[in-house]
Amino acid sequence: MKKIRIQLEQLTNRISRRTMLGGAATAAVALVQTASGKTIQQGVSLNELLPEDPTKQIGTLAGEVGTRSAFEKVVKKPSDISSRSPLQDFYGIITPSDLHFERHHAGVPAIDPAKHELLIHGLVDKPLVFTVADLKRFPSVSRIAFLECSGNFRGGKETLSPQEICGLTSQSEWTGVKLSTLFREVGVKPNASWFLAEGSDTAIMTRSVPVKKGWDDAIVAYAQNGEALRPEQGYPVRLFLSGWEGNTSVKWLRRLELSDQPFMTREETSKYTEPIKDGKYRQFSFDIDARSIITYPTYPKTVEKGWIEIRGLAWSGRGKVVRVEVSTDAGKSWQLATLQDPILDKAHTAFRYVWNWNGTETEIMSRVTDETGYVQPTFAQLAKARGTDNGGYHFNPITAWQLKPDGRVLHRPDNLR
Ligand SMILES: Nc1nc2c(c(=O)[nH]1)N[C@H]1C(S)=C(S)[C@@H](COP(=O)(O)O)O[C@H]1N2
Ligand SMILES: [Mo]
């Protein structure tokens, strides 16, 4: 029995170490440590570590935290400033917390929740400081909603995956206290029309938000998908403004200041404004416009002719998705896709369309309509409205995928047309 235990520990150790290394089933391994700390294997493949028949060997024992199967290699794509969710690898509508996209202006600060405080002051009757424990004592609220960066667009290459094109959107169940509850607690004055939200990262990120949004549906969130917020998502507390551009959901939130005018911070003057017609720029463009993207089949997958379930995600910052249409003939005709329940307000909604591909070259694409009647625009329409074909903030074009007769699926970049 003792021997089996040791073997088991070795196997577990080796496999979990592989998992940590992010090794694929075929990857060569560097040094592998046994439970006793001895180096025992080099260059073995994951398959070699598995028992020939899993029913003949006792499995790994229950652990403190679960792990992803070492065969599932799903990762974010980090750059200096952000990392993107692998939309093409997801099932359903919830983003696993460790795969939620990240966007940090100055890295992830390390914060002791016992020392963290949120100050609310300015045009209020009674300025107050809340500890994290104070915030958790108030009635709580949960909602499933997406969070999307307003800079969520990449294009210009055929070899781009959904993750690279628009992986700066993710969805969680967010839990916290309604900001309206805190507003009542401090007594927000009737003439307060804006508030400043400030983070405690090195960037001291600040944004002005209309007080109306605070009364409507703003949450001071301390949890995500059933556990405390991840440090990357703003631990221990963040502002969460559903449907609004991601930068307004200030992470590591430490201060809210009520005022009768916007604060004109760096993030709303030098950044987060978009060109519109006649050399003008728009400012405080908070709503995320409706968008959809096919996530299967997409680059880098390949397909065979015959039945294909086209799958994707659609969302709108202005309400619910009411319709997703799919075209399998490069936009000449459109068919209704099936929407998967639940169809939630300001939330990623899954769609699917079953199609029989005859193997000839074509393009597939999706377009969403939200409950305000807004229809997702084409790239050409957007480029005309903004006077640029380089993307920029709030760029949500219909995204097309080319199916090649040999089964390759490639992005079709509009700005190269
Ligand atoms: N304090 C602080 N809040 C922040 C940021 C930041 O850098 N610092 N980045 C903003 C931007 S630009 C986006 S898109 C979202 C990203 O949230 P996430 O990293 O949880 O996905 O957080 C916003 N809140
Ligand atoms: Mo962002």
UniProtKB/TrEMBL annotation:
Its EC number is 1.8.2.1
Domain Moybdenum cofactor oxidoreductase dimerisation: start-end pairs:
285-398
Key word Metal-binding present: yes
The cofactor(s) it depends on are:
Mo-molybdopterin
> What is one process in the GO biological process aspect for this record?
sulfur compound metabolic process
Q: So which domain of life are we looking at?
A: Bacteria
- The chain positions of domain Oxidoreductase molybdopterin-binding read 105-264
Q: What class of enzyme is it?
A: oxidoreductase
InterPro entries per record: Ig_E-set, MoCF_OxRdtse_dimer, Mopterin_OxRdtase_euk, OxRdtase_Mopterin-bd_dom, OxRdtase_Mopterin-bd_sf, Sulfite_DH_SoxC
One annotated GO molecular function is: molybdenum ion binding
Asked if Repeat is a keyword of the record, the answer is: no
Keyword set, alphabetical order = Metal-binding, Molybdenum, Oxidoreductase
This protein is called Sulfite dehydrogenase
Query: What species is given as this protein's source?
Result: Spirosoma profusum
